[in-house]
Amino acid sequence: MKRLDNIPTHLSRTFTGTYRLTGRVAKFDNAKTPFLKLRLSDCIGDQIAMLNLNKTTVPERIGHLDFVTASGVKCLSDQFVLDEFRKATREEINSLDTLQSLPRVYCPVPEVFDQLVTIVQSLESAHLRAFLTRVLERKDRLEAFLNAPASVTYHHAYPGGLLEHSLDVANNAVTMLRLNESALPRLMQEACFVAGLLHDIGKTYTYDSKGKPNTAWKLCSHDAFTLEACAYGLAHLDKHAPDLAIMLRHVWTCASPGARYGQKAAITLARYIRDADGQSAMANNQQRAFRRPTSKGFGRLGQNLFWQPQLAHSVTP
């Protein structure tokens, strides 16, 4: 590792920002100067930064995924040499855009991740954006949401599958709402998107940060964790938009196929999300069942049998 304590001004530019701390390892340069090599992450990507331990004291109690503010210079190697590294203030954290702090590096399906961030940041409702911040940007939930599969053996059963399935359901539910009830206000469309996006958020309690099933997966239904996962966000909506809060609770708990509790659906959003959930799961299952061509048009995934008609690629009238 080359010396990093004397960078010519014309080869560097200033840098400052607030990120999540996602990596830290001790290094020495050629002059035996001790450095910390830091990975600073957000929804755009990673910054690799070097902190000279002879010049800068590392603040205590900065841990994995904590918010940090760093400043320094960027050299030609695309690394930053820091002159400041500290815990971010509450004001700096609050100034970040919605989902800006989610580490893109943790998502196995980056194109889906980028779509999520783009849509969420386009929401007009400040209350729904604040709600999603309180639910998805929690240290103890975000890694599971980005890494977990949607199921262990069936639909979207791969790392990042939960995020992909959740976004499918949210987008498809909004499409159905717009087709059937185009006069509904934008706020209802945004609420439909949020409800669909978080319909399986309880699964973040049943997988660990690496997307592996945990004890809760064996002992509890993920449905039972939905309101718990959203409690902090719902408390915000209770104060600022109480009808949104109760609507989301109803959509996630009303009776649907397989539900163990709930009142009958009293709003069409609940049906759109139920149907979008089933269609996303079946479409992915069918794709997996036909990964290999079959001669008779049948494919099987577990106990489920699928049929694919043998149709000509083009039809001449």
Automatic annotation (TrEMBL):
Boundaries of every HD/PDEase domain copy: 158-291
Stored InterPro entries: HD/PDEase_dom (IPR003607), Unchr_helicase_relaxase_TraI (IPR011119), YhaM_exoribonuc/phosphodiest (IPR050798)
Keyword Transcription regulation annotated: no
Keywords recorded for this protein, A-Z: Hydrolase
Cross-referenced Gene3D superfamilies: 1.10.3210.40
PANTHER family on file: 3'-5' EXORIBONUCLEASE YHAM (PTHR37294)
Protein name per its UniProtKB record: TraI domain-containing protein
Organism name: Halomonas colorata
